[in-house]
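Wait, can you check?
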Amino acid sequence: MHIFGFYITGYQVAFIAVAGITVLSAIGVVLLPNILRAALCLGLMLFGVAGIYALMNAPFLAAVQVMIYVGAITTMIILAIFLSHRVMKIGFSQAIYNPLLAAAAAGVMFLFLFVTVANSVWVRQISAGGPAKSGAGIDAVATALLQPYVFPFELASVVLLAVLIGAVVIAKEDIEDA
């Protein structure tokens, strides 16, 4: 199909749709005043990332993204929100003391990350090579997770466990306050 003189494939249309949903839901995570709705937008954003993995012909990563991040992590965040009564009572204006300063800091951080990623070598290699060939992802990911990256993988699981325990301790109400 030709749009504004450019030939656009179905793959590019699908990528624009999935990336648009992902970016809009990420903006919703940051800007929604209700933390529960922000958590639901986070789940939608993570699902959009899984869609991008699927478009990159990496079905294993897409399935892992849906099972772990959309299913487990988002559910754990929503559970932590329901367990913490104090957070539900705090409004958006109370949580951010200086919105202009926060927006400026977020903009500077976004600009730094965008320039860093845009100038990296691996982005140029990926964009020049296009999507990966079918079936190349599962073996490569399994080999990478179980051989050279086994220590960081296990360290990430310990950090997630510590975060879960910390969330339970923070959400636990004090007997004196009750």
